[in-house]
Amino acid sequence: MTIFVGSTQDSQVKASNVHGLEVNMPSLFRSVSISDVDVRDNYVIMGKKSLFDIPKRYQVIKVLGSGSYGEVIAASDTHSGASVAIKKVPQAFRELLDTKRILRELCLLRQLKHPHVIRLWDVLRPTRCLEMEDIYLVTDLMETDLHRVIHSTQTLSDQHVGYFMLQMFRALKYLHSANIFHRDLKPSNILLTTQCELKVHSICDLGLARSLDVVAPVHANLTEYVVTRWYRAPEVLLDGSRYGASIDMWSAGCIMPLFPGSSTVNQLGKIFNVLGTPSSAYIDRLLKPAAQRWVEKQTYRPALAFSELYPQTNVLAIDLLAKLLTLDPQSRLTADQALAHPYITSLGLMYDPTLDLFDGTVDSSHENVPEVKEDMQRAVFEQVCIFHPEAREAEKRLAAQDVPHVVSPTTGRLRRAVQ
């Protein structure tokens, strides 16, 4: 089985795995050049938009791309032999609300270890805690994402779809067992290898994730602008102050986009056109009076059968979709229930379910860090020290002496020398 991704002009790679699935994927890489080694045990390379100042341990392979929150390069870890992605978040402490998100994803990712959740392997050590401006995160390297696969010209087979959904549900079961919900699940956050192995992308967008332990109850004003609109559950659109892990299950059901609305109101219209207008019991449970009044004014629309919308689709897949895309979050399948659905179990794919339960309690103390630059720098530095215990002693030594400054021969910037 083959999935073709991207245009015919793209360079492509092909591989297969034990499940008999294979993917042709466009190359995501661009060449980079390495500059002179600087005065530390680091070297500097030019990415697409900024300089990367990284330890010699990581030998850069290619520039992967850039986005609103930073730039990513592919590198080889000479200690482990693994290929990794290094994400640089430049000027990470300039906008403290963004810093809070970065700190959250950093703290959560450090604690999460699951085969289908992106793994955080390292946070690069800065020269000095209170001089830290950029943050570097080292994670798994993945070749492409589900957005590219879905929007390719090829049709996904039942086996492909089932295998992707199995892995996604396993990741969600693990996150939810840790009392974490993702809140921004979408195809571009579902990363894939050429062997169809899937990992939930947590570096860019798990910063939107929240621990259920630190979310206040009914009166809390949680961020309404979570989950790209096409994948937002109706309770987020209507009642943004209250939701739970079931929003991720709705997003999972929307991964192959059904409701491409252009605004919140338009999005609700798309949903009601398929699922029908909500019942009075559903409306009564909405907390916002304005939302109740808006829904009550909607023209009655009966629910459409998914089997009529997708007559050529596997009936078990249709049943699973219907149980994920239900208006009432209390009736929506959980990740555990989705894994037990006949569409998934009928594929006969074996996995170890014991890996899908988080062991312990998530440390959410990062949520209490004041939105003050120095406090944020110290909080990030504490996370760095978990990966680099020697950094704390080095920081103490630097603080106890008058450390001279040097000018980097590669960047021309003034900074403290590391002794």
UniProtKB/TrEMBL annotation:
<dbReference type="InterPro" id="IPR003527">
    <property type="entry name" value="MAP_kinase_CS"/>
</dbReference>
<feature type="binding site">
    <location>
        <position position="88"/>
    </location>
    <ligand>
        <name>ATP</name>
    </ligand>
</feature>
<keyword id="KW-0067">ATP-binding</keyword>
<keyword id="KW-0808">Transferase</keyword>
<feature type="domain" description="Protein kinase">
    <location>
        <begin position="58"/>
        <end position="344"/>
    </location>
</feature>
<dbReference type="InterPro" id="IPR017441">
    <property type="entry name" value="Protein_kinase_ATP_BS"/>
</dbReference>
<dbReference type="Pfam" id="PF00069">
    <property type="entry name" value="Pkinase"/>
</dbReference>
<dbReference type="InterPro" id="IPR000719">
    <property type="entry name" value="Prot_kinase_dom"/>
</dbReference>
<dbReference type="GO" id="GO:0004707">
    <property type="term" value="F:MAP kinase activity"/>
</dbReference>
<keyword id="KW-0547">Nucleotide-binding</keyword>
<dbReference type="GO" id="GO:0005524">
    <property type="term" value="F:ATP binding"/>
</dbReference>
<keyword id="KW-0418">Kinase</keyword>
<dbReference type="InterPro" id="IPR050117">
    <property type="entry name" value="MAPK"/>
</dbReference>
<protein>
    <recommendedName>
        <fullName>Mitogen-activated protein kinase</fullName>
        <ecNumber>2.7.11.24</ecNumber>
    </recommendedName>
</protein>
<dbReference type="InterPro" id="IPR008271">
    <property type="entry name" value="Ser/Thr_kinase_AS"/>
</dbReference>
<keyword id="KW-0723">Serine/threonine-protein kinase</keyword>
<dbReference type="InterPro" id="IPR011009">
    <property type="entry name" value="Kinase-like_dom_sf"/>
</dbReference>
<keyword id="KW-0460">Magnesium</keyword>
<comment type="similarity">
    <text>Belongs to the protein kinase superfamily. Ser/Thr protein kinase family. MAP kinase subfamily.</text>
</comment>
